[in-house]
Amino acid sequence: MQHIAFIGLGNMGAPMARNLVAAGFHVSVFDLAPAAVASLVEAGATAAASASAAVQTADAVITMLPANKHVQELYLGAGGVLDSAKPGALFIDCSTIAADVARQVAQAASERGFAMLDAPVSGGTAGAAAGTLTFIVGGSAAALQQARPLLEKMGKNIFHAGEAGAGQVAKICNNMLLGILMAGTAEALNLGVAHGLDPKVLSDIMAKSSGRNWTLEVYNPWPGVTDGTPASRNYTGGFGTALMLKDLGLAQQSALSANAPTPLGGLVRQLYQMHAQAGYAQQDFSSIVHMLQPGLQTPAA
């Protein structure tokens, strides 16, 4: 596949599309934000006047969108992807949405003769930029095999979770756990600092002890502990609180539909709801530490 349409150039989509351009693919891009499109054009992509125009001659269509309604409108709406894509095009939706919606769109695509994968990602903006994302894929093995040359240019790990919708289920399980770990890590660090411990020293101790986890080692929520994290730039960039709250809501919906108890998932969703309402919706989700220590700022260099 040589011609790729990429729709959705936000914090994750833009670097993913940029990696495809760097790999030599002809990439047509579309986003509602003209500046995002312009940035990709500077990197070598081709601007499309609309989503419909972007997909008309594309061999594969990759989408990275905020929520259920955006995916449904783009694929199922009049003049959308299903109406505009050329026969045989492969669809890869990297958005994090409800599994039922992923299955609905995949079924509609199948009825029109298209193969579709739900392929949400893990790894954050740093992973997107570095091309080291983890893809969590739902759909047929044949479609995944077709998609691999593209996914391998954007990610390091590719997992086949199962049939349509399975990628979304696995992703929301992961993100529910991520939210729990972030809130717990913030609590543990705040407790230590309240007793006079240096947060970096405490982080190093816990990273070599039984409390070790990804948020502690890679995405530390305490400012000044880990270079390059959102916490060290006043919680800008990264994975927004509003997006984490959305994913935690998806997890709770999924839990209810399967009658699977998730008491910690429910609690951390409430915490992030309060955090968002307190004015932190657009800050990185690691800013949950502000619930415990309001006003934390990145230390001066």
Automatic annotation (TrEMBL):
Matching Gene3D superfamilies: N-(1-d-carboxylethyl)-l-norvaline Dehydrogenase, domain 2, NAD(P)-binding Rossmann-like Domain
Superkingdom of source: Bacteria
SUPFAM superfamilies attached to this UniProt entry: 6-phosphogluconate dehydrogenase C-terminal domain-like (SSF48179), NAD(P)-binding Rossmann-fold domains (SSF51735)
Residue ranges of every copy of the 3-hydroxyisobutyrate dehydrogenase-like NAD-binding domain listed in the record: 165-292
6-phosphogluconate dehydrogenase NADP-binding domain: residues covered: 4-162
Similarity section: Belongs to the HIBADH-related family.
Pathway as given in its UniProt record: Amino-acid degradation; L-valine degradation
Catalytic activity: 3-hydroxy-2-methylpropanoate + NAD(+) = 2-methyl-3-oxopropanoate + NADH + H(+)
Protein name as annotated: 3-hydroxyisobutyrate dehydrogenase
E.C. designation(s): 1.1.1.31
Record-linked InterPro entries: 3-OH-isobutyrate_DH-rel_CS, 6-PGluconate_DH-like_C_sf, 6PGD_dom2, 6PGDH_NADP-bd, HIBADH, HIBADH-like_NADP-bd, HIBADH-related, NAD(P)-bd_dom_sf
GO molecular function: 3-hydroxyisobutyrate dehydrogenase activity; NAD binding; NADP binding
Pfam families reported for this sequence: NAD_binding_11 (PF14833), NAD_binding_2 (PF03446)
Record bears the keyword Oxidoreductase: yes
Active-site residues, Swiss-Prot/TrEMBL: 171
Record keywords: Branched-chain amino acid catabolism, NAD, Oxidoreductase
Record bears the keyword Phosphoprotein: no
EC class: oxidoreductase
GO biological process: L-valine catabolic process
Species of provenance: Janthinobacterium tructae
